[in-house]
Design a protein that fits this description.
Elements: H1 2-5, E1 18-23, H2 31-44, E2 48-53, H3 71-84, H4 96-99
Parallel strand pairs: 1-2
């Protein structure tokens, strides 16, 4: 079961790009899980972005109540804009624009 739940073991070059954020002291899920997943994405050559914030509990949601975490939503919006911009001119459903990244 551990192998099935280890996301980093299932990353292939066909995986979609991923945005990750984690807190270094998350008591529910070790930050190493996100680090390993980012490494797997890098090894597969798939786009990814990882942000690790120093402090915060598990399940932060938007994190508005924690000033040190608030920036994650802006980072996500920037990442989404970067990934969606090449697709804006791709109306035929092809993946050509994504493959250039």
């Amino acid at each position: 079961m551990r192998r099935q739940l280890s996301n980093e073991l299932h990353v292939t070059p066909q995986a979609p790009p991923v945005f990750l954020f984690h807190t270094a002291n998350d008591p529910g899920v070790p930050v190493e899980n996100s680090l390993r997943l980012a490494e797997a994405y890098a090894a597969a050559g798939v786009g990814h972005e990882l942000h690790v914030f120093a402090d915060g509990p598990h399940g932060l949601g938007l994190g508005w109540h924690r000033p040190n975490i608030r920036p994650w939503t802006g980072l996500l919006l920037n990442w989404l804009a970067d990934w969606s911009a090449p697709l804006a001119g791709c109306n035929d459903g092809s993946t050509a624009a994504r493959e250039k990244r």
